[in-house]
């Protein structure tokens, strides 16, 4: 039974998460809203329940009116990202000449792995981690090697150094696929941590490819640090996009960014890769980075509120769940092992509570007994989701 109000949500200030009603959202035809039956509340895949930022919508509308729907060209996206990096992260090291447009972040990761590794080479990941890391790396005929996060959900450098050492033996060309901010835990790596990563990678001959798609989405008291900005990361490669922060997954575009010593590597990317992004997507991402700052700030405030709301709701209704508000992303990593729901509590929440969360199992070692909850929803939806989850174990 649907207990969330179907009346239009009255906007609270400028919070994009409070702009759309559940009825409006259920008219969407994307994966989040069409994978499960209508009685299920979907808080799983990383789509946000927000309208498009007005500058983005205006840019798309103008492109359509002009029939500007051809092939992508130019460096506007990279220029906008460089400006954004300067304003948001105080980083002036993003050189437009050392960028390349790619279809999306994961396909960009694949292209970067092709540049710096060979079939059979090890690709190191910090599990639990975004499931496509396993899927895409395996399909590329590379070997995933896990370096589990520590109990504090941060990089365990004793483990990482040991894995680096073993991966570098023989003729291997090892790569460390860094997730920053980390999905699903929301951990935002510090400058000191990233510099240590860069140092260890150089010491052991490991190349670093950083997935930084969630970079703009951080809590109010947290600073994102680009991997390529730290000492020792000059031979690193990064993938960035406006996709997550402005909910543009359906408008495909991303950028590969090279450190100064990786410029020659990036220059070898096949020319046809640049045909993969959507031209309209690039227009949308560029508008988001250049003119969507106020909208992003409003979203970040809303997400901060939702993190605190979720913590309070869980403390009241499901105190056995382990949760700490994350520093980044719009995801919540919930430890449900004390609930007695088995190794995949997402199944119980779906079938008994009619709320869809991401199962922790596909995130690799350390994921069993966990679920990932998407916080990019209205407070009313988050509240109803926790009520349904509580009814599952009550």
Structural account:
The chain has helices at residues 22-25, 31-34, 54-66, 76-89, 105-116, 132-139, 157-167, 191-204, 263-267, 279-291, 293-317, 345-353, 379-393; strands at 41-42, 99-102, 122-125, 143-146, 175-179, 207-211, 237-240, 254-258, 331-335, 355-356, 358-359, 370-374. It is α/β, with parallel strands linked by helices. Helix 8 (191-204) links the parallel strand 5 (175-179) and strand 6. Helix 3 (54-66) packs antiparallel against helix 10 (279-291), helix 4 runs parallel beside helix 10 and helix 11 (293-317) runs parallel beside helix 13. The longest helix has 25 residues, at 293-317. 48% of the residues are buried.
Write a compact overview of the structure shown:
This protein is of the alpha/beta class and 394 residues long.
SSE topology:
Layout: H1 22-25, H2 31-34, E1 41-42, H3 54-66, H4 76-89, E2 99-102, H5 105-116, E3 122-125, H6 132-139, E4 143-146, H7 157-167, E5 175-179, H8 191-204, E6 207-211, E7 237-240, E8 254-258, H9 263-267, H10 279-291, H11 293-317, E9 331-335, H12 345-353, E10 355-356, E11 358-359, E12 370-374, H13 379-393
Parallel strand pairs: 1-10, 3-4, 3-5, 5-6, 6-7
Antiparallel strand pairs: 2-8, 7-8, 9-12, 11-12
Helix pairs in contact: 3-10, 4-10, 5-6, 7-8, 11-13, 12-13
